[in-house]
Amino acid sequence: MKYSGWPEVGELVVCQVVDIEDFGVFCDLQEYEEKRGLIHISEVASGWIKNIRDHVKKGHLVVCKILTVSESNHQIDLSLKDVNDHQRSEKIQEWKNEQKADKWLELALGSDLSNDQFNRIVPGLLNKYETLYAAFECAVIDGKSAFDELDLTGKEIDSIISIALENISLSKVSVSGYVDLECSAPDGIDAIRDALKSAEESITIPPDVELDVIYVGSPEYLITIVAPDYKLAESLLDQYANYILQSIVKNGGTGKFHRDRHIDEDS
After folding, report:
1. Residue 126 DSSP label
2. What are phi and psi of 131, to 5 degrees?
3. Predicted confidence band of residue 142 (pLDDT cuts 50, 70, 90)
4. Could you tell me the residue range of the domain that residue 253 belongs to?
5. How many CB atoms lie within 10 A of CB 139?
6. In this structure, is residue 100 part of a structural domain?
7. Quick one: DSSP state of residue 60?
């Protein structure tokens, strides 16, 4: 995906060398539509340059810093010498990640994505996560909640999560949810404790999974599962919460599972 607008001064951009002259180097900006910039010979390298072609080769990818932008003159001035090795490596990796994410989005939503669908989905993802790759990473980490407040259908979300899980491997993911537990019986507190304890004893938690239950405030308890992958974490969270709810009902109480923090109106 390429941006239709203009880059900002100070921004690092990936460029392809398209022409080399004695006075400078012309480059096409790889992240922007139909944008070409000039690296003046004084910005190619520090010190005196005997032969500019000793520093750049036609067709090569380089990382440059935006020095000036003139939209009226369609002119972009670039600097190659102002980018250090660390910045160059980091920017190239970021650019490669975005190329991957572009392909993943096509796989998830179809290569024939309409303009209306593109404009409904992509700006929202970029506004929330800045890059598409980051959106896919968060899909692995947070699952469906990563797309809260975004204008995506359930089918689109499921497709994005599925592609993200196939292509991104993270060491651990964390999912959480709340159970509201109430019991008006004289031994109601004991009934709630028994429901929590029986779930912990009955649900098998693998050794590489962490389970944590915290009392938030009446009637809420926060359940957090940390696991090697999102599917396992979600499955264990659902199992654990459902077992607690079944147990509290058997003991004469009521229960409800939800993903968002409940805030009382009087709080």
Report:
1. H
2. -130, 155
3. confident
4. 173-258
5. 26
6. yes
7. -
Both 107 and 57 in a single domain? no
What pTM, to 2 d.p., does this model score?
0.60
Sheet of 254-258, strand order: 210-217, 220-227, 173-182, 254-258
- CATH number of the domain encompassing residue 178: 3.30.70.1130
Give the list of residues 6+ apart from residue 76 with CB closer than 8 angstroms, or none: 6, 7, 29, 35, 36, 37, 38, 66, 68, 69, 70
Last residue within a domain, chosen from 137, 167, 197: 167
| Cβ-contact 180, 249 below 8 angstroms | no
Q: Is 217 left (phi over 0), alpha (psi -120 to 50) or beta?
A: left
Complete DSSP assignment for 75-125: EEEEESTT--HHHHHHHHHHHHHHHHHHHHHHHHH-TT--HHHHHHHHHHH
What are the tens digits of pLDDT across the range 48-97? 999 999 999 999 999 999 999 999 999 999 999 999 998 999 899 999 99
Q: Please, what is the end-to-end C-alpha distance for the chain in angstroms?
A: 45
**Amino acid identity for residue 177 in this structure:** G
On whether the CB atoms of residues 41 and 81 are closer than 8 A, the answer is no
Structure-token pair, residue 203: 């649900």
Reading phi first (left if > 0) and then psi (alpha if -120 to 50, else beta), residue 54 is in alpha
Domain boundary among 66, 82, 98: 82
Reference 41, options 31, 28, 54, 29; nearest CA is 54
- Cα–Cα distance for residue pair 109/137, rounded to 1 Å: 17
